[in-house]
Amino acid sequence: MPDEARVRELMMGIEGLALLRNAIDGDEEFLTARVAEIRKIIDSTVGVGESETLAELDAATGYAAWASTYDSKPNFILAVEEPVVESLLARIPPGSALDAACGTGRHTGRLVRHGHQVISVDQSPEMLAQAAAKVPQAQFRVGNLTQLPIPDTSVDLVLCALALSHLPDVGEAIAEFRRVLRPAGRLIVTDVHPIMVLLAGQPIFAYKPGELAFVRIRPHQVSDHLTAFATHGFSFISCHEPLYAGPLPPGGYEERIPDAARAAWAGIPSAIIYEMQAPA
Ligand SMILES: C[S@@+](CC[C@H](N)C(=O)[O-])C[C@H]1O[C@@H](n2cnc3c(N)ncnc32)[C@H](O)[C@@H]1O
Known about the structure:
The protein has 280 residues and is of the alpha/beta class.
């Protein structure tokens, strides 16, 4: 792993992806502009000497540090994930719901607004403190996705958003969702789309002055999820792959090359959302 954020290399990578995806159909002006921009990046000192250090943190350390700023910036994954979750919840009658790996309570609040009695679990006390301040109507518990502090067959709905990609394997958590769900209970799992994880890499946050950090996410394939759902008896209701719709990560290097960045990401699924049903 590099110990520096390689801004110059990242910018050339985005330019390259924009070229790769448009080499056949793109117009000449667009392609010429990309080549000129790459030349400028090579010839100038852009990105050189501004490399902040980059640390990989485990989930406990990373989210403890990220909790206070986690909600402060627009996020292009949330921009496409939230409308889908909202539309799925609109069709589900109120009951008892678990927000598994709830973070700062983004969906906990949504579940409460849809009339559910909500228990939210996360491994990070710091993220839970943010969530509890925002959504006092819910109950909060520290716990792990692979060993949920929730009794068997006790909830009607499990929602797990943008968290399974932190795990080395999705099977154990999906087994836990099955354990805590009542018969015919509903499961909604959202995550960064594996294509996006493979292309865009890790979500990075400001850790300390001059130091960036990330908590690793992994590109679990659709087949990994489907196999785990089937193994634990879930049946398929729906799957959604909303496409990138901006904005560019604010304050990031992509804002310096916006045409390349938009062309690089256009039409690529940013999130994946599965809606499944537990056995009756
Ligand atoms: C990207 S955040 C998403 C938070 C929230 N679900 C949302 O979508 O806004 C990932 C969350 O997963 C939690 N997390 C990561 N690994 C976990 C694990 N093994 N057990 C419980 N929570 C975990 C982190 O603490 C963090 O709050």
